[in-house]
């Protein structure tokens, strides 16, 4: 079989909401890709979060309630 590869990378510390936890998600995702496993946070979960965040921005702009549809 193919020999194993090891990737080493460093990322600058990011201030704001991503910070330490954001790095944990990035590291988990990279590990999942390299190891061929499902990431801890699935694509469906990530899309759902983005839908909610998008609705928050829409609600702020319109100053009204915005319904987030269930999938």
- Secondary-structure-derived class: mainly alpha
What is the molecular shape?
elongated
Order of helices and strands: HH
Q: Which bin fits the share of residues in helices? A: 40-55%
How large a portion of the residues is in β-strands, by DSSP E? under 5%
Overall pLDDT score = 84
Q: How many distinct helices?
A: 2
Distance between the termini: 41 Å
Biggest sheet overview = none
* Poorly predicted sequence stretches spanning 5 or more consecutive residues: none
Number of strands: 0
| Rg over alpha carbons | 17 Å
Descriptive overview:
By secondary structure, this protein is mainly α. It is built from two helices and no strands. The protein has helices spanning 19-35, 43-62. The mean pLDDT is 84.
